[in-house]
Write a structure and sequence with these properties.
The complex is a heterodimer.
Chain A lengths: L9 E4 L4 E5 L6 H18 L3 E6 L3 E6 L6 H17 L9 E6 L9 H8 L3 H9 L3 E6 L6 E4 L14 E4 L3 E5 L2 E4 L4 E3 L2 E5 L20 E6 L2 H6 L8
Parallel strand pairs in A: 5-13
Antiparallel strand pairs in A: 1-2, 2-4, 3-4, 6-7, 6-13, 7-10, 8-11, 9-10, 9-12
Chain B lengths: L1 E7 L2 E5 L19 H10 L8 E5 L3 E7 L1 E9 L3 E2 L2 E2 L6 E3 L4 E4 L4 E9 L35 E3 L24 E6 L8 H4 L7 E7 L3 E5 L13 E2 L4 E3 L7 E3 L6 E2 L3 E5 L1 H7 L7 E6 L2 H12 L3
Parallel strand pairs in B: 12-20
Antiparallel strand pairs in B: 1-4, 1-11, 2-3, 3-10, 4-9, 5-8, 5-10, 6-7, 6-9, 12-19, 13-14, 13-20, 14-17, 15-18, 16-17, 16-19
The chains are: A alpha+beta, B mainly beta.
């Protein structure tokens, strides 16, 4: 890649205590790995000075406890961190692979008909393609435990609903653009629903809180209705 | 020290300095809307900086003192009285069993902070007692509930470590504050010049859609040329521009990621004052340089 069309990473100060690092302008595995590496370096390098870190697709937010007494110096340190990320070979220890059971039954795949219409494929074929590959957890946000997984195969990409649902049932497996996700709790939402998982995506009672972390890989596995119910799945409409 | 809530038409939420370290999992930090008033409340009683305080938003709210102790009220002037006698805000006072503490008509600001020696007791959830109703976390019961009629607020301390006096000139006048400093940032440069200037050269009205998650403003629409944005982390104070061009200022319970373009961030101390404005009131923004924002913030910190 020539120097001219390479993305120029940026270090931006948002307010007295928040800084945003930008690693790219396209969603890609490579960019996501850079964000992940930067998060590890920042957590190690700034440790107690940070009170929070929020990674997303192409960006990393660093929240400092106190404003830096010398913000020029902090900017230089953060630019050095970004440079280190770009210079490294990105041979990260890969995140864990998580298998998530999904019931693709039509009674819970509330948008199966619209998905068939938009993709021109049978719903069975959509489900088959959806399970065929592992997805990366690119970001977690929107609501606690909501993991943005990508990227989905071209054939099953669909647009969001023109009018979002006021209430999406907990555990709903959904598609939107090149992303797929599970709704961790009942919430409004505009993604197309193609199934439901019995797994709790956020559990305040568990020590790990979530089965997933940014950087993990997810493989969906179809289960039948009996197993879905046995694992604690719920067929409620909302 | 114990209080029992007897009458309540507003919103009473237990808050500490916030639930930090979990935003990466999509969990909002929550915490007090007006962090400055919250900090002063704890400082006046010699409490730890992070002690739990009750945030009282509007409404008629009455407590009966069931065990004696010390209290302080900061933030909005909601016509607080004790047994019918007006109370002085920003100053510790002692209460005895049977006393009636009443908040009623808002005179200056929207949210009052009621602190007690040692802080109100509640169980930590993810390291904080801050109430997030949307996420069902924190508060007295741990599952995000507001304090309701019949609930008791308890502190294990009856006397404060010390009581301090607030310098009168530091007590904010929320009615007077209508201009708020903004640090330009995020997608600011990608807005056309004449569009981004609209943030600073008009007066906005606070719409009725204002809650702990965000304040929606009404004014001449500001349009972005940046239609599709990859979702990125947002911070409290960030000014989002959805497609309708009406700004949304993100507040204490804001989400962690957002895909709308943003023009910048309301300076933290000014955001505290903004959270005391009421729907229907007007406000305007002015630009502030990062260096000045930082200087003002450091000056604030140095007072504690």
């Amino acid at each position: 890649m020539s120097v001219s069309n390479r993305y120029q990473p940026r270090v931006e100060q948002i307010d007295e205590r928040n800084w945003l690092l930008r690693f790219g302008d396209q969603i890609s595995e490579e960019c996501a790995q850079r964000v992940q590496l930067a998060e590890q370096l920042a957590a190690a390098g700034f440790a107690e000075q940070l009170y929070d870190l929020v990674p997303a697709y192409t960006t990393l937010l660093l929240s400092f406890r106190m404003p830096s007494s010398d913000r020029r110096q902090l900017k230089i340190a953060l630019e050095a961190l970004v440079q280190e990320v770009f210079d490294s070979s990105l041979e990260l220890n890969e995140g864990k692979l998580v298998h998530l059971p999904v019931y693709y039954g039509r009674e819970v795949a509330l948008d199966w008909a619209e998905v068939e219409l938009q993709t021109g494929l049978s719903f069975e074929r959509v489900c088959e393609l959806h399970q065929r590959q592992a997805y990366r957890v690119y970001a977690i946000g929107f609501a606690p435990g909501f993991a943005y997984l990508g990227t989905t195969p071209e054939e099953i990409r669909v647009q969001r609903k023109s009018t979002p649902r006021l209430s999406v049932p907990r555990g709903s497996l959904a598609l939107a653009d090149n992303q797929t996700a599970i709704y961790p709790a009942v919430s409004p939402g505009g993604w197309q629903l193609i199934g439901r998982s019995p797994i709790k995506m956020i559990d305040w009672q568990s020590d790990s809180l979530m089965p997933l972390r940014t950087g993990d890989k997810v493989l969906f596995e179809a289960i039948n209705k009996a197993d879905f119910l046995r694992l604690g799945g719920c067929l409620d409409a909302a | 020290m114990q209080l029992k809530l007897e009458l309540n038409t507003g919103l009473c939420l237990l808050q500490d300095s916030g639930r930090w370290g979990y935003r990466r999992l999509g969990v909002s930090s929550s915490g007090p809307m007006d962090r400055s008033s919250y900090r002063w409340a704890n400082w006046l009683l010699g409490n730890p900086e992070n002690a739990a305080v009750l945030e009282i938003t509007l409404g008629k709210t009455q407590f009966k003192v069931t065990q004696p102790g010390w209290l302080v009220i900061t933030g909005a002037d909601l016509s607080a009285s004790l047994n019918g006698n007006p109370l002085t805000l920003w100053q510790a006072f002692e209460v005895k069993a049977g006393d009636l503490l009443l908040f009623s008509k808002p005179r200056n600001g929207l949210r009052a902070y009621l602190a007690t020696a040692g802080g109100w007791s509640a169980q930590n959830r993810l390291g904080s007692v801050a109430t997030s109703m949307r996420e069902k976390l924190g508060g007295l019961n741990g599952v995000g509930g507001a304090v309701e009629i019949g609930d008791c607020l308890t502190s294990n301390f009856s006397e404060p470590e010390l009581t301090r006096v607030m310098p009168a000139w530091l007590i904010p006048d929320f009615n007077a504050a209508s201009s708020f400093a903004v640090i330009p940032g995020f997608q600011y440069e990608s807005f056309a010049l004449h569009e981004r200037e609209k943030l600073f050269n008009q007066s906005f009205e606070l719409s009725k859609d204002c809650d702990r998650m965000g304040y929606r403003l009404r004014g001449v629409a500001i349009h972005s040329s940046n239609a599709s944005l990859i979702s990125e982390p947002v911070v409290r104070g960030a000014i989002q521009l959805p497609p309708d061009g009406q700004p949304i200022v993100l507040m204490a319970d804001c989400q962690t990621l957002g895909g709308y373009p943003k023009l910048g961030t309301v300076f933290s101390l000014d955001l505290d004052r903004l959270s005391q404005r009421m729907p229907g009131q007007s406000l305007s923004f002015r630009k502030i340089a990062m260096a000045e924002a930082q200087k003002r913030y450091e000056a604030f910190e140095s007072k504690f």
